[in-house]
Amino acid sequence: MIRTNNDGGFQVAYANVDPHRARDVVQRVMGQALEENLRQAQAGSRGLLLRVQSPADLPRISSRPHVAWLTAGGLVGAILGAVIALRRRVS
């Protein structure tokens, strides 16, 4: 999403399930805006003042600890399920 405001500025925002893809898209769009701004300045036109207020960044919280706990829980559940199934067979 690109929004413009009255002072000639614009804002770039992009959301995606994959944070890496979202960051890459925003960086690509801002890079293109920077290159166009430089081209206009070299042609003698007054360029835009580009200011990055909030750089595209990845979430600081990793999902890896959650995956480890889910894996451990799955393994414990599988072992308990096997033990219960064996006890029912023997009974």
The main sheet comes to:
2 strands, antiparallel
Question: What's the pLDDT, averaged over the residues?
Answer: 78
Shape: rod-shaped
- Total of domains: 2
The first-to-last residue Cα distance is 64 Å
Number of helices: 2
Q: Which stretches are low in confidence, meaning pLDDT under 50 for 5 or more residues running?
A: none
Question: In terms of quaternary structure, what is this?
Answer: single chain
Radius of gyration: 26 Å
> What is the tally of beta strands?
2
Strand order of the largest sheet: 1-2
Order of helices and strands: EEHH
- Percent of residues in helices: 55-70%
Class per helix and strand makeup: mainly alpha
Strand content: 5-15%
Describe what you observe in this structure.
It is a single chain. Helix content is 56%, strand content 7%. With 91 residues, the chain is mostly helical. It has 2 domains: 1-58, no CATH class; 61-91. It is rod-shaped, with a radius of gyration of 26 Å. The model has no long low-confidence stretch (mean pLDDT 78).
